[in-house]
């Protein structure tokens, strides 16, 4: 059998590597045994013949054969030569962690401090309360779309169902945006929309500007894409865009309305500064909005439409489980994003798109948000009152009328992470500032959201949170003056 191989070309030895030739030869033969190229019972060449073929010393071949025999891979018999031993062809070791891409290491495996705990009050989540969603009404709409329309059982147009895009365009036109249905791409939530923008417009090493602190999903995508984050510091009037001057970011990601996590709505002057800085940088501006703009201020996308994309979603204020979002922007941008979306999924489910289109046309979403707004406002008032009474040393951004977010600014020496852990131990969920920091630093901040917590849980939850804060504050040895 050994004569069937041309050993002089089958094995290459590197005499300049510094590794002993016997070890190189043993490794090469071991690989061929493991792959099955040299099967059980295969007789290796006589040591003299292999030495001649490879132009090496016979003693080198003898040493290599001894290594294989000591490893249990071959069996040497006097008068019969050296044969490959039956090993049962054991598979190579498998560990999925060894196969992970380097990008995955950028994703944090950590859960929130309150994960898995039974909570007295959960202020950690910025998600709408499903009790205010008209589930029965929507279920009827969805059932009708699913059962009576055969066209919904086929693939969708690349941009999404036209009737939904028409309704989205109509809604946006009420706020000064004029994208038209052919400049809207329906996505599986705003998170997919943001992912498509990163995949389409960035390469590893590129720069992306974003507010600091900001939405954790944007931070995770930036890390996964391997881009450099240019931070735009948040202030009480909005993001500071001055770092954009002299920079050439590919994308600028901002949330002018009720920014997550600070709750800040950018003031008029700040919006103009952002637009001027973006125009000077040459970047594509991403405006992450809600279902509809509600502040009364013109969206950035209405003022700089040729280089701004608007991200809309039903998840923030209505129902996260739908995973319906959209991108509205310049036609050339949307067309390229649609092309990239097809590499991940062909479409967002058509029956769901049709049902959402009917739901929006009927104004059912607006009725649901109005009902929910009364509940949120009652909880906000209670939370603000108790925070002022129980935590006079803590100030905050957000928390104004209609805003469920409180970005608490703790004394500088107090760890937001430790406060979140102490609150979780008392059965209260809050979000640590570190979760929203592009550098992952432990900020002296925490975010409270009354979006989802039951109104009966607000007062006991705030009291327990205040207890947790005071415990951490005392342990830190910090002393601060009350905020007036």
Provide structural commentary.
The chain has 484 residues and is of the alpha/beta class. It has three domains: 2-84, Orthogonal Bundle (Arc Repressor Mutant, subunit A); 113-128 and 367-476, Alpha-Beta Complex (Aspartate Aminotransferase, domain 1), CATH 3.90.1150; 155-362, 3-Layer(aba) Sandwich (Aspartate Aminotransferase, domain 2). Helices cover 40% and strands 14% of the residues. It has 16 helices and 16 strands. It has helices at 7-10, 21-35, 47-54, 58-70, 96-99, 135-148, 162-173, 189-201, 216-225, 268-281, 300-303, 331-344, 350-361, 364-390, 416-425, 455-476, and strands at 74-77, 81-84, 121-122, 184-187, 207-212, 228-235, 238-239, 251-254, 284-288, 308-313, 325-328, 395-398, 405-409, 428-429, 431-432, 445-449. The strands form four sheets. It has an eight-stranded mixed beta sheet with strand order 4-11-10-9-8-5-6-7, with helices on both faces. A hairpin with a 2-residue loop joins strand 6 and strand 7. Helix 2 crosses helix 4 (58-70), helix 8 packs across helix 12 and helix 15 crosses helix 16. It is elongated and about 95 Å long. The N and C termini lie far apart (92 Å). Mean pLDDT is 87; it is low at 480-484.
